[in-house]
Please model this.
Amino acid sequence: MKIPNPIDKHVGSRVRMRRVLLGLSQEKLGEALGLTFQQVQKYEKGTNRIGASRLQQISKTLQVPPSFFFEGAPLADSALTPGFSEPVSSAYVVDFLSTVEGIQLNKAFASIKDAKVRRRVLDLVIALAGAEDAPQSID
Model:
């Protein structure tokens, strides 16, 4: 079995994240693009590479510029562009935000208006995770 290219996997995860944010199913996105949901699934997993014209079509359907799908993408050779690559430790954030749970948690957390309540929720999550070396309050 061939391992997906990290860029293809990243672009696919951004397609999935945006699709879920818009509340579209893989089937609905597939219909809009003239594809089966299985093809959308393969794009989202990075199993199948998305061509330029298809990416343009997806960007219009998902109402984002094509560059959206490359934000935070791993660099092929970070030695060529020193100072512009993201730290490896931030990759887990992009991976998490590409999941249904990550999107739901982010939307729900962002909808909490009271800053004290948000802080308490964060403290609770840190405590549940057992993150002893997690960042402390910045305020």
Observations:
- The CA atoms of residues 2 and 47 lie 8 Å apart.
- Residues 99-139 form one domain.
